[in-house]
Design a protein that fits this description.
single chain; mainly beta; 127 residues
């Protein structure tokens, strides 16, 4: 199993940037595909971005493409989400998720593709 701990959320103004981090507990971090999801009040959880286990392939939802960037640091067992040009519609609880993937090359876009989840970090963007 792997435990995930998110950090970096907070209250910002529209146009600001935030960088979310997710630290994994296992030293075998490099065999886990990772994803960032978010859930706004009254809405379903949605995928924001995902990255393959080897870091070579990424996916970004259309709503964040060009503003958010997912990356991973294998040496630090960490996956990050750089969020720029934030707007109030980005307000949500952001969750980090992991899925074991020995192939190393696939990213996953479905909520049910992931087996492990963090507790979430709140991001609030004021107008």
């Amino acid at each position: 199993q792997v435990q995930l701990v998110e950090s970096g959320g907070g209250l910002v103004q529209a146009g600001d940037s935030l960088r979310l981090s997710c630290a994994a507990s296992r030293r075998t971090f490099s065999i886990y595909a990772m994803g960032w999801f978010r859930q706004a009040p009254g809405k379903e959880r949605e995928l924001v971005a995902s990255i393959s286990a080897n870091g070579g392939t990424t996916y970004h939802a259309d709503s964040v493409k060009g503003r958010f960037t997912i990356s991973r640091d294998q040496a630090k067992d960490t996956v990050c989400l750089q969020m720029n040009s934030l707007n109030p519609e980005d307000t949500a609880v952001y969750y980090c998720a992991a899925r074991l993937d020995y192939s190393g090359t696939y990213y996953y876009t479905g909520e049910y593709d992931y087996n492990y989840w963090g507790q979430g970090t709140q991001v609030t963007v004021s107008s």
